[in-house]
Amino acid sequence: MKKFKNKLLVLIITITTVFISFNTNTMSAQDFGGDIVSSYVWRGAQFGSGAHIQPWMTLGSGNLEAGVWGSFPTTANGGGNELDMYLSYDFGDFALTVTNYTFPTDNGTYGEGNPGLFDGDWMEVSGSADFGPVGLTVGYFTNAEALYVEATFPIGAVGIGVGYGSDGKDPFYVGGDSGLVNLSFGGSKDIKFTEEFSLPVFGSFIYNPDSKAAFLVFGMSF
Question: What is the dihedral of CA 116, 172, 57, 162, to 10 degrees?
């Protein structure tokens, strides 16, 4: 598994380097932005406490996209720092994504026992596809051997999500077991200030049946 993980990381870095080097003149999309959320909840679990700022940057060419995403608390003791790199390819009927998750300290460094940005200890391979109005995402962490499956679909203006986690080698989503970990419903709208400017906002209610935890999250996008 260690050998597979390292080969996968080398592949990601190689593809990204080639992608940036040879597509400088044909770049079709480069973008950046960020969200502010009242709390950081991911797959039915809260990370840190308090509001988080979540910046992102992407670089794309054709169906290939490379990106960086982060989440950082707005308070000194909020916790939940995260900085992820990903590489994704859209095949049309489905998309394949490889994500390297990392968790830097407050000053951006990685301490002992905390894998760095290019170590690849928290690598997830995921696929997503749409089947009519239903979206399906399947993700697998190669080191923890943990599987996550989520289906999303609309009911009117409300978006519904159902997530199922299954742990393998280590406790991950459900303490070494398997079951529902994420039931959510939410929506989004634009708050219009002028003819030229509006602010996208969103909200979600999230319930984790396994841990009996509930969250109400509000956010704004920029």
Answer: 180
